[in-house]
Amino acid sequence: MKKQLAYLCIIVSLLSAVLFYNGTTNADTPVVNNAEQTYQLTKKAMFYLRVLKSDGTASATGTGVILSPGGTAATAYHVVKGAQRMEGIMADGTIISPIKVSNYDEQKDLAVLDLPTPAAAKQADNAYPYLEIRTEAVKHGEAVFALGYPLKNTNIITEGIINTPAAEINGRSRILTSAQVVSGMSGGPLMDAHGRLAGIISGSLRTMDNIHLIINMDDLRSILPAAMK
């Protein structure tokens, strides 16, 4: 009888250890998203960006990415260079205006934008949807997704890999990706498979077909408000 009880205790202990191990592994394993899931996670936290002339027509367009619930956003500097008036159009059609440039770095091709307060923009729960910024560097061959607005009412997603996490282009370090980029996507997000912002779209590399330029997160953090670094 004592031997049976001892065996039973051992079995219970082993089962408990297995259950605990599985629970810990599942909790620590990051979720991997496909393109459809990435689009759903990202679409509400980006917007179609219009730089306006005095007559209200657009002189330039691109994409903006929201980085905080309060309305800090980012885009590529070349989209907003010299802008006097800007507005954004969210995925649900909400127009957000005015938008102002609060900081920029022309060499890095980055601009930080201040959106209207969430209340003024009539955002649910008085907060903007926003993207988590990735902290670690991307890796060769890693799956990524590029998103943006090539047209006013049309946001798109493309899928590719990281060709290299660091290439020197015109004196700047750039991520290179095979995720397709077209006009209007500048300033949009490059997302990793775990739902985090891994880069800001800058443009295309003319010397290589289907290879595109992405601004890394270290460059973005360098011009963000101190509280977000």
UniProtKB/TrEMBL annotation:
The keyword Glycoprotein does not apply. Coiled coil: none annotated. Residues 1-27 form the signal peptide. It holds the Pfam family Trypsin_2. Keywords: Hydrolase, Protease, Serine protease, Signal. InterPro entries: Peptidase_S1_PA (IPR009003), Peptidase_S1_PA_chymotrypsin (IPR043504), Peptidase_S1C (IPR001940). PANTHER family: PROTEASE DO-LIKE 5, CHLOROPLASTIC, SERINE ENDOPROTEASE DEGS. This is Serine protease. It comes from Paenibacillus auburnensis.
